[in-house]
Each structure stands twice: as structure tokens, then as C-alpha cells.
Write a structure and sequence with these properties.
Layout: H1 3-20, E1 28-30, H2 41-51, E2 55-57
Parallel strand pairs: 1-2
């Protein structure tokens, strides 16, 4: 392996890693659709956390 080839590979490695990583999708819950359940605000947050939601819209 040539030194030039090796250093060129080192320079492009971070760019390749950034290109291959995809941003995670955020999952959220709109509480207007479930307000008839009778939960209070803290129960809504607990329920949303148990579902793995990352965003809750009150």
C-alpha cells in the first residue's frame, strides 16, 4: 500500500461515516386524539414514555 493511498483513505473516512449515518426518526404523540381517556397531564406523559415517544404535543 502506498502512503498516498493510505493518507487519502484517512482523509475521506470521516466523510464516509457521516454520509452513511441516517438521522433517527422522532416519534411523537398528539394528545388531542386521546384526551377522552381521562388521563391527567402526568399520566399522559407516563403513557407516552411507555410507548417510546420522544415528543408529546399538549
Amino acid at each position: 500500500m502506498l502512503r498516498r493511498t493510505f493518507t487519502a483513505g484517512l482523509a475521506s473516512a470521516p466523510m464516509a461515516m457521516m454520509a452513511s449515518s441516517t438521522p433517527a426518526a422522532k416519534i411523537g404523540i398528539d394528545l388531542f386524539s386521546v384526551r377522552s381517556s381521562g388521563f391527567n397531564a402526568f399520566e399522559f406523559l407516563d403513557h407516552s414514555a411507555s410507548l417510546g415517544a420522544q415528543l408529546v404535543h399538549f
